[in-house]
User: What shape does this take?
Amino acid sequence: MTTSFVRTLPVALALALASIGVSAIAQTTAAEPTTTEKVKEAGKDAVDATARGTEKAWDATKSTTKKAVNATESGAEKAWDATKSGTKKAANATERGTKKAWNATKNTTKKATTATKKAAVKTGDAVETAGHKTADGMRSAGKAIGEKVPGTAENEAAKKP
Assistant: This one.
């Protein structure tokens, strides 16, 4: 062996190993988000949907309560005026005010229930989507692993052009 051959052999060997390392790094760098990132994003979506639904339910409850208070005050004022002029008028006014308060409470309860149902549906959808994405990611990972294991169907399929 010549001296120049002995000197160039380590350089060629180092370059070959470096190119293998660069190739391995390029293969492991993914353009798509990981399954964990997808699940985290779906979880955030579910939390956001629940927060929005809760906010709507709270707003509906506040609005209904305000209407009920106003209707009760109005009914009470009418009752007082009617009391001055007669008991029968007072009873009717109180009954009307009570009906208004009851109707306002019913409407608010319906709004709150609807908002809560919508939030629950959105949360369920987000969780379902996250589960599907996780399962798809696990299947893809299993297939990729199977392609590397000799004797598996995935490995045989990967060998065919």
The chain has a mean pLDDT of 81. The longest helix spans residues 87-148. Residues 10 and 16 are 10 Å apart (CA to CA).
